[in-house]
Design a protein that fits this description.
Chains A, B: It comes from Stenotrophomonas pictorum JCM 9942. Chains A, B: Belongs to the serine/threonine dehydratase family. Chains A, B: Its cofactor is Mn(2+); Mg(2+); pyridoxal 5'-phosphate; Ca(2+). Chains A, B: GO terms for molecular function: ATP binding; L-serine ammonia-lyase activity; magnesium ion binding; pyridoxal phosphate binding; serine racemase activity; threonine racemase activity. 2 copies of one chain form a homodimer. In chain A, α9 links the parallel β7 and β8. In chain A, α1 packs across α9 (about 185-200). Chain A is built from 14 helices and 10 strands. The first copy, chain A, folds into 2 domains: about 10-55 and about 155-305, 3-Layer(aba) Sandwich (Rossmann fold); about 55-145, Rossmann fold (3-Layer(aba) Sandwich). Chain A is of the alpha/beta class. Chain A is globular. In chain A, the strands form 2 sheets. Chain A has a 6-stranded mixed beta sheet with strand order 1-2-10-7-8-9, sandwiched between helices. Chain A has a 4-stranded parallel beta sheet with strand order 5-4-3-6, sandwiched between helices. The N and C termini of chain A lie far apart (about 45 Å). The first copy, chain A, is about 45% helix and about 15% strand. The interface of A and B includes residues 27, 49, 278, 313 and 317 of A.
Chain lengths: ~325, ~325
């Protein structure tokens, strides 16, 4: 096993400078109704309004911007259930370099459309982790493209951390706790680095689907638990926690696991009250707060609304 | 027929001062994707993020705030398909006075829930204009409550105008044209007054459902055409253009009529691209722009996203 390349807190600052010309500064949304419902003061970082419709653009843009001209000329490749693929495609398109995206079966149609819209080449594969990585390696070998892993990548992790860094700067009050969704752990690990960079005592809580709870089991056991078959409506959180992500997060974050029913209920609330079209993988953060209200009562809570790319013809509450 | 009491441009300024302690300053949203799609520079005034989920709070709040203590003690009454009812209920709740809302059959469930949540008394009636007004008159006679008509009311019209006034102040560039939905004409007439108050040459375009196009026919013929049976997915735009609204708008605004299919398509785009949960009665403004792109090409266009109270279990694209 090769040595892990772990990003540090300062890398988040470097990423923020690198992506500043390209990424949006997304707003922070508040809601009296949701504050009353939760008993907490919620500060929603609207990353579903980020370019490409998810925070993923931050990491992808940081990785693409950091390529040497020689690397960039050969393009980039990744595997992604959707949001990272679209984000990388957009980042590559901005730098006018080729982009290949390996997409597992079962991906959300709206996300595939975003990838194609930004000019990437699509490669389909089975939905297992092994199939994704094998197809990705094949494309990489054939094209010489640089792999930009969706989460187990130092540049990607540092880039994702810029969302939390921005949120901390935007809030008029110090945050006591920050809740972010966890799948592969790019946003989670990046957020941890951002909190270290800001030198704040703010606690980090990860919201994870009960049907893909490898992060909870990994952090509890002290060993990564990458072998599982995900079963969750949160299509963006089906990946296994990455090795560098685990190394950064172990001992430094706690996890709340959430049933899909609670996630879908939270998603409806965000649509109905906040009027924001967020995807299940985003709504899970609010669901985690509502699942354990005593833990958050009276506190200033940051919530990263991570993405908003949903298939409007297959909403989770209208499925047969 | 009694003399019409028409508000003037200065009344919009007075309304802005009156509602400032209560109403939200809603953001202006932009989208590169929608600018490219339309060929125009679109500035979306996010009134679906207004308190109660629609611009209607502005007019209701202005009317309630202007009541004398004696009037206020007897409460307020209105008839509304939903958004005005909820807005008046919230405004009355803030002043701790009674509120009665007459609701026609066929109103959206989410809107009824908002009315009840803010403590108003609900009265049901048939969906015709005559039935609404008769029931409203009955409640008024029994309770002594002051009628706050949803649109044919000087204070309501002036209050609705504050949305456009705010938008003009928020934009970093002068707007060439402003597109707003029209039903009873409260927002439309208020917006006209705001443009007069701002002394801008900005053009006013009204977006109206083809299945409730009395405003188009009224402005074309020079005579109000209040007798029709509305048939449109835009539940907020089924009312007939009011008399003071007609008097203000005649000769000073043009209308684009829009089929429901185009409105629903625009609504999907706003959900998917802008990630904003707006209702059909809001989306019609974007639909009008996309229906006549040559008219808006290259121009700075203001669009009032008027409300976001939708029934998530009965979305217009998933109806049988």
């Amino acid at each position: 096993m090769k040595e892990l390349s772990l990003p540090g807190a300062a890398d988040v600052l470097a990423a923020a400078a690198r992506i500043a010309p390209h990424a949006s500064v997304t707003p922070v949304l508040r809601s009296q109704v949701l504050d009353t419902l939760s008993g907490a003061r919620l500060h929603f970082k609207a990353e579903h309004l980020q370019r490409s419709g998810a925070f993923k653009f931050r990491g992808a843009c940081n990785a693409v911007s950091a390529l040497t001209p020689e690397q960039a000329a050969r393009g980039v490749v990744t595997h992604s259930s959707g949001n990272h693929g679209a984000a990388l495609a957009l980042a590559a398109q901005s730098r006018r370099i080729p982009c290949h995206v390996v997409v597992p079966e079962g991906a959300v149609a709206a996300k595939l459309a975003n990838i194609v819209r930004h000019g990437a080449v699509l490669w389909r594969c089975a939905s297992t982790q092994a199939a994704r990585e094998a197809e990705c390696a094949r494309v990489q070998a054939e094209t010489g493209a640089m792999l930009v892993h969706p989460y187990a990548d130092a540049k990607v992790i540092a880039g994702q951390g810029t969302a939390a860094l921005e949120l901390l700067q935007q809030c008029d009050t110090p945050l006591d706790v920050l809740v972010v969704p966890v799948g592969g752990g790019g946003l989670a690990a990046g957020t941890l680095l951002a909190l270290q960079q800001a030198a704040t005592p703010c606690e980090l809580v990860l919201a994870e689907p009960a049907g893909a709870d490898d992060t909870a089991r990994s952090l509890a056991s002290g060993q990564r638990q990458p072998d599982f078959v995900p079963a969750t409506v949160c299509d963006g959180l089906r990946g296994a926690l990455g090795a560098p992500n685990f190394a950064l997060l172990h001992g430094r974050a706690s996890v709340i696991t959430v049933d899909d029913d609670a996630t879908v209920a939270a998603m409806r609330r965000l649509w109905q009250v906040l009027k924001q079209t967020v995807e299940p993988s985003s709504a899970i953060a609010l669901a985690a707060i509502l699942a354990d209200p005593a833990r958050f009562a009276g506190r200033n809570v940051g919530v990263i609304l991570s993405g908003g790319n949903v298939d409007l013809d297959a909403l989770p509450w209208s499925r047969p």
